Amino acid sequence: MPGIIRLAEDSPPQDWLALSLAPGIGPRTCLDLIETFGSPSAVLAATHAQLSQCGLKPATIAALHAPDQGLIGAILAWADQPDAYLVTLADPRYPPLLTQIHDPPPLLYVRGRVELLRDPQIAIVGSRNPTPGGSEITRTFARRLAAAGLVITSGLASGIDGAAHAGALETGTTLAVLGTGPDRVYPAVHRDLARRILEQGALVSEFPPGWGALANHFPRRNRLISGMSLGVLVTEAALQSGSLITARLALEQGREVFAIPGSIRNPLARGCHALIREGAKLVEEPEEIIADLAPGLRAALEGTQEVLSPADPDLTPDQSRLLAAMGQDPVTPDELTQRTGLPVEQISAALLLIELAGHVSSLPGGRYVRVS
């Protein structure tokens, strides 16, 4: 795993673009070149002989020495919009978990709330043609996981992806990872959903503006969905579903994989059952996922924010309200529901995150007590 890349010195965006757009240079080769020479600018300044020794072909070397300035200028103009960003591997906003995969993209094209890239994420994927029950379960899990503070990450595809984004928008935030450029929406039926995501979340792509949907883009997109996330939840999928590819990529990347079981008579449950047989964790409630991700959530919280306090602006309104309602004596989630009016499942999820942040401690009998 490469970890966060170390550069001898950073480079201007146009040099990152010139390197990443050169034909014959994929993400892994790009990373190898940067590690060899120290920065994208240094790669572009390398001689023909030096680049040949790295295994690059003459056409690739020629593209590095004479980048397409028209294309680069058009991308920089796109990034000059208020809600558009180029996020390179050297950028502190780059998703930290994504640096750990074998082939992290050298830069990401982002629209919307770019700061969400560093927040703890859970991916939710599944069938493009789910059952009504599968869609409802997906929305429920996404809604409750988002309410607990996790960013819901998916691929903006029809079916389960769309349900995951929609559920997350009801209570929290979501990231849509695209198989197109950041200025395109595919499928077109999700244009309104993409607009709503831009208001509360972000659209993310490794493909430049103007790039359309090609078949080979979507496996590349899937590795980002799993690579940015602490874990992947598959809610409904057939045996040949592309969602199983995402889940298996997650396993290769060292991520947790969760699957919701279904009826043996439902063909869209078979993919989940296959994952469970292969080692995915069977889950029935969102809180099981949060509890299982606790070590990763703790690390993410420690890495991205200071210890929370009730007056801290990073503490969500519901978490502040919950702490205020607890008092100094042990309480149960049911008692907090009576005091706050919040649903018990939302309270249970929030308590887990607040406990990870060091504000409460769990006691025998399902009770919690404030420690700060």
Task: Summarize the structure in words.
The protein is of the alpha/beta class. It folds into three domains: 13-112, no CATH class; 119-294, Rossmann fold; 306-370, Winged helix-like DNA-binding domain superfamily/Winged helix DNA-binding domain (Arc Repressor Mutant, subunit A, Orthogonal Bundle). 45% of the residues lie in helices and 12% in strands. The protein contains 17 helices and eleven strands. It has helices at residues 13-21, 27-37, 40-45, 48-53, 58-65, 69-79, 132-147, 160-171, 191-200, 217-227, 242-252, 270-277, 286-292, 294-304, 317-326, 333-340, 344-356, and strands at residues 84-88, 107-112, 121-125, 151-154, 174-177, 202-205, 231-234, 256-259, 281-282, 360-363, 367-370. It has a nine-stranded mixed β-sheet with strand order 1-2-6-5-4-3-7-8-9, with helices on both faces. A two-stranded antiparallel ribbon has the order 10-11. Strand 4 (151-154), helix 8 (160-171) and strand 5 (174-177) form a beta-alpha-beta unit. Helix 8 (160-171) packs parallel to helix 9. The protein is globular. The two termini are 37 Å apart. 47% of the residues are buried. The model is unreliable at 304-313 (pLDDT under 50).
